[in-house]
Amino acid sequence: MIIVNNRLLSLLGTLLLLAGCATPEIPNWDHRVGNYTYNQAVQDLGVPQHSTPQKDGSIMAEWITQRGTPGTIGVSQGNTSSTPAFWNSPLPDTFHATADQHLQLTFGSDHKLKSWVRFER
Fold first, then answer.
1. Would residue 25 count as lying in a domain?
2. What start and end residues bound the annotated signal peptide (predicted)?
3. Mean pLDDT over residues 43-66, rounded?
4. Could you tell me if residue 14 is inside a domain?
5. Is residue 21 part of a domain?
6. Mean pLDDT, the chain, as a whole number?
7. Nearest Cα to 79, choosing from 67, 87, 91?
């Protein structure tokens, strides 16, 4: 019979929770400048949200890489004596909105990646 220490069990649970919340690694586009083409970007990322041809033949294209969340305003149950104990929760009842994550790629007239930028809107 194996006896597990409560502290060890709690630590393992916390580590599993943190591992599950890890964000995926965001690629660095610097190494793709000069050799990544517009067609490859469409193949990898799908059709861009916006694509604007420039006068010099270059293309500026924008993708939404992650949708934001609208956020919520919860109704607090309060800690009054009339509130049943099972209504009180340690979880927050308000979640802050997050912005959409965008990737803007600019391709030269040869349709090879010239520059890139990541931003939120």
1. no
2. 1-24
3. 94
4. no
5. no
6. 77
7. 87
